[in-house]
Write a structure and sequence with these properties.
- The protein has one helix spanning about 1-30.
- It is mainly alpha-helical.
- The radius of gyration is 15 Å and the shape is rod-shaped.
- About 0% of the residues are buried.
- The model has no long low-confidence stretch (mean pLDDT about 75).
- Keywords: Membrane, Transmembrane, Transmembrane helix.
- It holds the Pfam family FeoB_associated.
- This is FeoB-associated Cys-rich membrane protein.
Amino acid sequence: MQEIIAYVLVILAVVFLLRKFVFPSKKDKSCSTDCGCH
């Protein structure tokens, strides 16, 4: 049971990091963070 919980936490952490680094990287090329431009 503990292994299942550990694997779920690892998967959630990887998904969080992918979202954090993949999606903002596209926005950072055009402008700084939270500048409101698209």
